[in-house]
């Protein structure tokens, strides 16, 4: 059995629709958040869990965390049923939500860590060793005595990660951990997650709409839609299905040169460069490059893959999500 084993999971919510005009009651509506969902995740895996809003990602994480109880199906995380053994389960679990903070707003983050140490009953020596390791890896040393409210968004996210990992959990749930972060903060956070996974074998389930996070961190991805698992496998294999367009920017030694492009390809000018958008399925990249070289000496040539977000959007459209 896998470290996380989910079998035939179902969860339905009852919501009340907006009351119609001249009506005294509101109609109830059944929303099926999860519909016969099954998957397994081995210990030490780092898995991306993606899907559009309302697909059931957050419901899955809440059930795996022990916050929600499913209508039917079974879940085992490290041999425990999360909602039945919640107190023992959370000792092995860390959770970071990109838009929610667990640390106290007006006190130094070191005081929050001290309280978390007591909550999780981490021995003093182990706490000190772990805090030193995390503070160095996350570059938090100068910030430990600073109140959370005085930190930048990127610093707060690093502080949150530290707090979630102080008790050295075996499993880490990340929900939009890089939302709102600048490029430097994103790269730093990704490097740390790779470090934590490789050094401690921490199992990580990452839910995000940022496909760059998935591409950088997760070789395996699961796609959820309407509460059902639609794909489970290699991320690059998934993208290759929807890699329908690429862009070539070419700059010749003579700016007036025009390449003999095969029909129906054409080019547009961008400054002193020519831009060609093509489908690798219709014309191999090598054949296109040969056509471009026929025009004359090339000073610079750049091949750009299709934007990952565009490919994922195309996938969602094809899956009717």
End-to-end Cα distance, whole Å, is 31 Å
Specify the structural class: alpha/beta
Kindly report the average pLDDT value.
89
Q: Biggest sheet: strands side by side, in what order?
A: 5-6-7-3-8-9
Number of strands: 13
Helix percent band: 25-40%
Query: Can you summarize the main beta sheet?
Result: 6 strands, mixed
| SSE ordering | EEEHEHEHHHEHEHEEHEEEHEH
Unreliable stretches covering 5 or more consecutive residues? none
Number of helices: 10
Report the sheet-strand fraction. 25-35%
Using the alpha-carbon principal axes, give the shape: globular
What is the alpha-carbon Rg in Å?
25 Å
Structure, described:
The chain is α/β, with parallel strands linked by helices and 321 residues long. 33% of the residues lie in helices and 28% in strands. It contains 10 helices and 13 strands. The strands form 3 sheets. The protein has a 6-stranded mixed beta sheet with strand order 5-6-7-3-8-9, sandwiched between helices. It is globular. The two termini are 31 Å apart.
Main attributes of the structure:
single chain; 321 residues; alpha/beta; 6-stranded mixed beta sheet; 4-stranded antiparallel beta sheet; 10 helices; 13 strands; globular
